[in-house]
Design goal:
The protein is built from 8 helices and 23 strands. It is of the alpha+beta class. A 4-stranded antiparallel beta sheet has the order 2-11-7-9. Strands 15-22-19-20 form a 4-stranded antiparallel beta sheet, covered by helices on one side. The protein has a 3-stranded mixed beta sheet with strand order 6-3-10, with no helix packed on it.
């Protein structure tokens, strides 16, 4: 059987209706209203709820039932039109004025199939194109826009097969994301356990960074022609090349210096945001501005990877923000960097700790890439299945 298209309006069993935003109390009382962030790229985030007032009887007119569809009617342009199929995730829960609700006739369209289509590239772009508003940060769609969405309609058995197939990808993505979260929690536990041995542990000594490291010698480059910048990524994500900005020398601008593999570099304005890392071998000879301090470590006393993981504890690098100087953009001085406190075991123990943490972090990176691959493959599959380019019979 061939596919056809219908406007969403013809598939509805209950009309599109705006929600209601009550004045919310501070304390939970058994009634809830969804927050605007509850509609995400992947459906409903049931953690994004607020208490609803028990005394406001109007809330009851907007309580959600399993099978209700929700659409964000007002948001930023990249988020407007986000949707979800409510499946009873939260009891006694209503929806706010910035969302719309509707129900469909299950004999005309399989609800889970429509749920997938509403997340497709075609539906998302339709809502974004149809949104209007004078503010660049807040645009709106209305009931007419939602009702006018053209929905592909394969035969009902094929709708069910498509939804079931795509749901297996959702399950794989969700399972991988939960595993990533568990691995990240375990990594933080390992990091804190290994880097905090407690008082009086034999073989650990308290020193300053300057006792085992020095500021690398530097000579300003005379030409930036053909040079590529290094960037110290925030949130302890290391060092990468910055190909978006072409470095230029000027009399009033900051000078640039060549950096070499193995140097430990610190963004002085962003240490407290996790802005530090080790220059990898493939970025040897790239350049960095004078806003970045480069350290040469005494490799007989301090392992670079151990230092990275030592610094990358949130309790450590965020606390350093309190000692940063400056009236405008605050930054650490080289002197302050060399005065940073360390608690070090011997080099062999440092290397063992660093290897264990590197392995644990690599597990997380592999799983993250796997989840990204699943999401990419699912998007490609949706594009083919929800447009009829690929047909599913069972």
């Amino acid at each position: 059987m061939s596919w056809r298209e219908e406007k969403l309006k013809t598939l509805l069993s209950q009309p599109v209706q705006n929600g209601y935003s009550p004045v919310c109390p501070d304390e939970p009382n058994g009634k809830w209203v969804l927050g605007l962030g509850a509609l995400s790229d992947t459906g409903l985030d049931a953690s994004q709820v607020k208490p609803a007032p028990v005394s406001d009887s109007k809330v009851d007119d907007f309580l959600l039932q399993p099978g209700d569809f929700l659409v964000s009617r007002s948001n930023t342009r990249d988020k407007v039109g986000r949707s979800a199929l409510f499946k009873g995730e939260v009891q006694n829960c209503s929806y706010p004025d910035l969302m719309m609700r509707f129900r469909v006739n299950p004999e005309a369209i399989y609800p889970e199939f429509l749920e997938m289509y509403l997340r497709s590239h075609e539906a998302v772009k339709y809502f974004q194109r149809s949104a209007s508003g004078t503010s660049g940060t807040m645009v709106k769609i209305n009931k007419r826009v939602v009702e006018s969405l053209r929905v592909p309609l394969p035969p009902l058995p094929e709708q069910i097969a498509i939804a079931d197939l795509l749901s297996t990808w959702d399950a794989a993505i969700e399972k991988t994301e939960k595993l990533i979260a568990a691995k990240e929690k375990r990594f933080l536990w390992m990091q804190n356990k290994m880097m905090n041995p407690g008082d009086g542990i034999e073989g650990w000594k308290k020193i300053h960074l300057g006792d085992v490291a020095k500021i690398a010698r530097k000579s300003a480059i005379e030409s930036a022609e053909g040079k590529t910048l290094l960037t110290v990524k925030l949130h302890c994500l290391g060092v990468e090349a910055n190909t978006r900005i072409r470095p230029k020398l000027s009399k009033r601008g900051r000078p640039y210096y060549v950096r070499h593999a193995g140097e430990f570099i610190i963004g002085r304005q962003n240490f407290h945001n996790g802005g530090f890392g080790i220059v990898p071998p493939h970025l040897d000879g790239y350049i960095a501005s004078s806003a970045i301090t480069s350290l040469l470590l005494d490799r007989k006393e301090l392992d670079a990877d151990f230092l990275f993981f030592y610094f990358s504890r949130p309790d450590y690098y965020k606390r350093v923000g309190h000692i940063m100087d400056g009236t405008g953009q605050k930054e650490l001085s080289d002197k302050q960097i060399l005065r940073l406190s360390l608690l070090l075991p011997n080099l062999l123990v440092q290397k063992g700790i660093a290897e264990a943490l590197k392995y644990a972090r690599q597990e997380i990176l592999v799983l993250t890439k796997m989840a990204d691959s699943f999401r990419k493959q699912k998007r490609g599959l949706m594009q083919k299945l929800l447009t009829g380019r690929w047909r599913v019979t069972s």
